[in-house]
Amino acid sequence: MHVEYNSNPMHSYYFNDTLLGNIDQEKDLGVLTNSKLQWGDQIKSCISKANQIIAWVTRNLILRDKDVMLRIYKAIIRPHLEYCTQLWSPVVGHGSWASIMELEKVQRRFTRLMNDIGTLPYSQRLRINPDVAKRRGINLYCNR
């Protein structure tokens, strides 16, 4: 993969007299990186995986008690949303609100599944479940 940064020249690389092909993105240690060092594909991958798990929980879980659902969120869903966030986390100051809101949709969708609080507005669900609100400082951008 050729990283387009600071007019880095694009060289051809050979292995045993065979030209190695160019790729646009690479997955290393579970993180998708593209040649422009943008993390949009990584964020989409995390959201997709978390939504798949939420769908699985919805299909297979009968008891949706708040405590059970919170443990499921912490153990199964949140690790997919937070894996290597130090590297790819969208920053508010860089105009990444669309990515942040997509990540929050996952959390919003999951908290809607909880018994007794699923019908409350999202800001109240976060106040009831402070552990969910701690993820990436979400209480900074929820309605008060």
Task: Describe this structure in a few short sentences.
The chain is mainly alpha-helical. It is 48% helix and 8% strand. It is elongated, with a radius of gyration of 19 Å.
Main β-sheet, spatial strand arrangement: 1-2
Q: Mean pLDDT, rounded to whole units? A: 78
Termini separation comes to 45 Å
Largest sheet, described in full?
2 strands, antiparallel
Using DSSP, what is the number of strands?
4
Question: Per the principal axes of the C-alpha atoms, what is the gross shape?
Answer: elongated
What is the tally of helical segments? Answer: 6
Helix content: 40-55%
Characterise this structure.
By secondary structure, this protein is mostly helical. It is 48% helix and 8% strand. The protein has 6 helices and 4 strands. The chain has helices spanning 40-60, 66-82, 85-88, 97-112, 122-128, 130-133, and strands at residues 14-15, 18-19, 25-28, 31-34. The strands form 2 sheets. The chain has a two-stranded antiparallel ribbon. Strands 3-4 form a two-stranded antiparallel sheet. The longest helix has 21 residues, at 40-60. It is elongated and about 65 Å long. The chain starts with 13 loop residues before the first strand and ends in an 11-residue tail after the last helix. Residues 138-144 have low confidence and may be disordered.
